[in-house]
Specification:
elongated, alpha+beta
């Protein structure tokens, strides 16, 4: 199978794989060449893939979508880091990905505050028109 991992910054990984294991919102899956076509939302996790030499490698992925169509497996994720070392990727998930998640929550809170201020401003304008 052709495994491709893409992030907003570009293609992170493109390689041949005999099998790909990852976690979705519904549990763990392993895709192999004869697996049916498949689409799922991925949780932040470490994707394991086995290459043609039966060597296992890893990709830390921060959320995304996985699509298997024919012999192509494509993962579109927010962020990804490739490594042969499982220990280093565990640290990436614990530190960097959680930090990104905290920033996302802070941004969402700031956006909610801006929206509330905008609604209040429109309410005041509407009240001034009727007054």
């Amino acid at each position: 199978m052709q495994l491709t991992v893409c992030s907003p910054m570009g293609t992170v990984l493109q390689t041949e794989a005999l099998k790909v294991t990852f976690e979705t919102l519904n549990g763990f899956y392993t895709l192999m060449p004869k697996h049916v076509d498949f689409v799922a939302a991925m949780k932040p996790n470490i994707v394991r893939y086995t290459d043609e030499n039966n060597a296992e490698s890893y990709v830390a992925c921060h959320r995304g979508i996985v699509v298997k169509k024919g012999q192509n497996v494509t993962m579109s994720v927010q962020n990804a880091v490739v490594s042969k070392s499982l220990e280093s990727l565990s640290a990436v998930i614990k530190n960097d990905f959680k930090e990104n998640e905290e920033r996302r929550k802070e941004l969402n809170l700031a956006m909610a505050r801006l929206e509330l201020g905008l609604v209040r401003g429109f309410s005041k304008l509407k009240g001034d028109e009727n007054g």
